[in-house]
Write the structure tokens for this entry.
Amino acid sequence: MISQFENIKQLFQLEEITQQREGLILVTAPREQIVSFVTHLRDALNYKHLVILTAVDWIEKNQFQLSYILNNPFEKCDVIVRTFIDREEATMTSIHHLWEQAATYQRELREMFGIDFPGSPRVDKPFMLEGWDNIPPYRRDFDTKKYSEETYFPRPGRETNDPTEFMKKKLYPDEP
Amino acid sequence: MSLRKLFKINEDRSLYPPLNSEGRIDVDLSSQKYLKLWHGPQHPGITGNMSLELTMLGDEIMDCETHVGYLHRGFEKLMERRKYIQCFPIVCRITVPEPDYNEYCFAAALEELSGIEIPETAKWIRTLVLEMARLQSYLMWIGGQAGAFGMGIIGQWSNYCRDLVLDRFEELTGGRIYHMFIIPGGVRGLLPHGFEGRMEETLKTIETFMVDIEKVMFNNAVFKKRSVGMGYIDPKWIYQYGITGPNARAAGLPNDVRKNYPYLKYPELDFEPITGKDSDIYTRADVRRRDLHLSIDLIRQIMSKMKNEGDFKAPTPNVLHWKVAPGETYIRSECTRGEFGYYMVSDGSEYPRRINVRGPSYTHAIALLEKMIINANLADVAGLMTSLHTYPPEIER
């Protein structure tokens, strides 16, 4: 199974072809090759089923990883195609013409990570967050705790304790 | 003219107003010819907290847009700030009808990345818990499908049966809805004494009720007339729209994760994927009904084959300092609605870098529903939605 990727390694400039387990291959492709590579997988290698399109935020490398998980229902194997895009210019070519549900995934990525997919249907329309005016919430630099403390008010009568300090006081009240 | 032809989606949209750049219909509401109608989020025919924005001409639907976001809890984000063991009690909250698939996928992904092999007994008990979850989820769905077509009493019968399964869950795990039983490394315990007998009693009661349900629902003229030929899914759409589970199997494809990508103890169980031919609401209901009986059969097989003794949990690192090697994986399982999967990325720290949940409703409730609802009658919207078995919380996680 890994050999079919070795054969097209040159064609699509693939890197890091590894086998995670039997029936699951990980492969990295450059950003500009993704659409043609994914189309080749779908049409020539029978990876007909788009399972997931999602992103991972590698803030320390200033990159987003886009993961396309494709499934070959005939040979019963999967491939995770990864590509890295710049975090500052988060734009990627849309694949909504290949799979209908890709438009929904891209709309979610646009909202949650701020990755733009020009031309994808309804991509700029709010998906889950109506009236959101902060940075995209699934980015690593968005602090959920800080946001909720600033946005909502605490209910009176509730106090928060540090678990270590609290248990120490409770179990060993005499120790400093 | 057969019923199927009567209800087929009309690809000719020349009678409708033209589509705009977003592929939507722009209508002039002041002309009083068209109507915008919000079906949900508070509506008995909606399967949870979502809404459909319908554009109607008379009682015929011209356009539909699914709106979600009424239940967004940001689980995927919350998990990035929690240690793996702290994620474990929140993953089950992602889907209410069958939380165990979340627990299994999360645990299996973590075990794969950490290189942990779980004991045989744990595999059997996990398989049992997943089948029990499937059984109770189908029992709840029957009530919804029948209720959407005006047969309220069936929901009461099937929910009684579901409560019996929940009693068994309570006995086994201590919880009725959320079980938190499939922990990373194995399960939390062995089956209690006498469980097998009480489970058999429950299965027999369910089978008795299913005889009545089949008579009243599947042989009902009203149900047949409204569901046969309605809500047709073309087999060509299966991969184009990412359709999985009973929705795909009713179109004739034997796509069952339990058979095609065997996990846990499914390879040792004797079963064949349930398929249908006609791919309408009735066939999908029938596939689910037969799947329910298959689930009962599988529980019996598991009970007779498993040994309730020995280790049920593999040794794991200290859960408070559990560092997982860098890597990524995807784990899938077959839930009642289709392929349920977890994509987990680890960066070598004590916290997951990213966990993405693939709920089958993600594709069914948005891309597919918006396509197949065109030309349907307003009265059939609830039945159509329930026949896809959509569940909003797994769309927005």
